[in-house]
């Protein structure tokens, strides 16, 4: 198997393994994080009704001159504020296929800083 294909297969396995243990409800939605090379985004998802409740992304930020990790923290804070306004206090954190460090950790820390329990 080619290296790229193997890498993608391993990523999918990690994602499915992580996702099999997590379920979001309307009271306690799933806090999903996605990071690309350029942007970071996060969503609060109700898996029972299959709807995205809230979302935030670095595309929405009007900040320049900050590195990607700092921008990811701002995305977490933005989503935490939106969750507080919507009355959501708890969420189940879903890191997807990513390791819990860097931008993924920064998003979680930003959301916790605004009072969202993960």
Characterise this structure:
- The protein is built from three helices and four strands; from the N terminus they run αβββαβα.
- By secondary structure, the protein is an alpha+beta fold.
- A four-stranded mixed beta sheet has the order 3-2-1-4.
- The longest helix is centred in the middle third of the chain and has 19 residues, at 68-86.
- The chain is globular.
Task: Using brief descriptors, characterize the structure shown.
118 residues, Nucleotidyltransferase, domain 5, alpha+beta
What is the CATH-assigned architecture?
2-Layer Sandwich
The topology string of helices and strands comes to: HEEEHEH
Mean pLDDT: 94
Please state the structural category: alpha+beta
Strand order of the largest sheet: 3-2-1-4
Radius of gyration: 14 Å
Which word captures the global form? Answer: globular
Number of strands: 4
Structural domain count: 1
Give a quick rundown of the structure.
By secondary structure, the chain is α+β, with helices and mostly antiparallel strands. 40% of the residues lie in helices and 19% in strands.
Q: How is this fold's topology laid out?
A:
Layout: H1 3-19, E1 30-35, E2 40-46, E3 51-57, H2 68-86, E4 92-94, H3 103-113
Parallel strand pairs: 1-4
Antiparallel strand pairs: 1-2, 2-3
Helix pairs in contact: 2-3
């Amino acid at each position: 198997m080619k290296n790229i294909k193997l890498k993608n297969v391993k990523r999918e396995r990690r994602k499915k393994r992580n996702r099999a243990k997590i379920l979001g409800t309307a009271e306690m939605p799933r806090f999903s994080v996605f990071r690309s090379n350029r942007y970071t985004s996060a969503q609060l998802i109700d898996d029972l009704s299959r709807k995205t409740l809230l979302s935030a992304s670095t595309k929405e930020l009007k900040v320049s001159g900050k590195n990607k990790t700092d921008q990811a923290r701002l995305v977490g804070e933005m989503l935490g504020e939106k969750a507080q306004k919507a009355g959501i206090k708890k969420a189940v954190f879903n890191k997807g296929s990513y390791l819990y460090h860097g931008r993924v950790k920064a998003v979680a820390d930003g959301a916790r800083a605004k009072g969202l329990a993960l």
